[in-house]
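Field reference: sequence -> structure
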Amino acid sequence: MFSLLGRNTILCDRLTRREWLRVGGIGAFGLTLNHLQASRAGSPTATMPALAASFGKARRCIVLFMLGGPPQHETWDPKPEAPSEIRGEFGTIPTATPGYHVGELMPLTAQWTQRIAVLRAMATDDNAHSSSGYWMFTGRPHSPKGQENALPGAPNNWPSVASVVRHLKGDPTSLPGAMRLPEEIWNTGHIVWPGQDAGWLGGHADPWLLTCDPNQADFHIPDISLPIEVSPDRFAKRSALRDLLNGQLRATTSASVDRWSGWQAKAIDLMQATETQKAFALDQESEKARDRYGRNRFGQSVLLARRLIEAGVALVQVNWTRWPDDDNVAPAWDTHAKNSERLKKALMPPMDQAYSALLSDLEQRGMLDDTLVVWMGEFGRSPKINAAGGRDHWGHVFSVALAGGGVQGGAIYGQSDRHGGYPLEGRVEPQDLAATILHCLGVPPETMLTDPEGRRVPIVTGRPIEAIL
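Structure field:
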């Protein structure tokens, strides 16, 4: 088949144009957008009075993923009355929600709790990054639980929520319907977690992985524009020749050629769409705006996510990444040692700054009411501080925060025990979070797909968390 650019160019670190163009067709496993729209009318969650008002309220979603497991005690669920070895060294501060306090290292976020709903009894009972993370991404528990360094693939190849959104909503613009940045999630040794892609849904639904550092002074995405040596006129001639060759082949291999042509057309749209180029142009933001998000990889990635949803991407996941000075003992939010020092110096300030800047920016642009912002990690941290001054893995209870479209701001749902170790009431699990996200985005959680074995399966087994909607 004819190559437009004449080379195998890397698009997003691991995905080449050639691989992208040969991805299978949309709709291989079940519903597409037209079927989804038809199914909404009969959806129980869309018609129940208590849930109807929030159904489809969010047009888009940004997920902020705190890699490593953020501590509930120093963030959304502090325990000021607990012993020092439980509560830690930090105090609490009041928030915009009367009677609700958060950890003292969240002064900017505290001003926005009237737009945030907090789940304080999320649980996986899984203390392994990989398998607990898989459940958080897909809404399906990993088999077995507690498996560190679990790898992608059967039997744990359920599609991520992001890929389900892309599969059902499609790609409304030249950009994909779902994206991940600034890198994929992996354990030490670059062991990639399962649950980040489309699994058995197929490559057409994979959220695009954009490996990048938007904080670099010369940040740009070279593979969404024409190479310097290919002029628009030359590109047009190549396109015409491609169409001619495809037309000659269509008579004998029409299905494969049509599929190929469709994906090549998307590639052309991507490279020629002005709005696509603008979405990645962070230099169009004022210096003040960029400063508000924080001049670091996470902060600028969150800013880029805002620009991408403005350009039409339905769901963008921003992953916290390892910083250059992270060690292998306690990288990112995995604070097995020096928990207080890491939180105070490396973790909480940039998170608090970027998260609050995003909420403020969306509010000022009139977008917060129809944009869902999810703050989460794969689990929480242990109640008791260990001998190294750290907190260990803890999936028995932790906190998740949702803000914006479809969410009842100021709602606090669930309660952990006095030490923040186990749910006391209002326990929820990742499948309930997945159902809530899909519900807010206008996807009925009871929507059925056909898996590779031909079985009809619901996209998620949980129910929307009514108390925060």
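Note: Confidence is low (pLDDT under 50) at residues 1-38.
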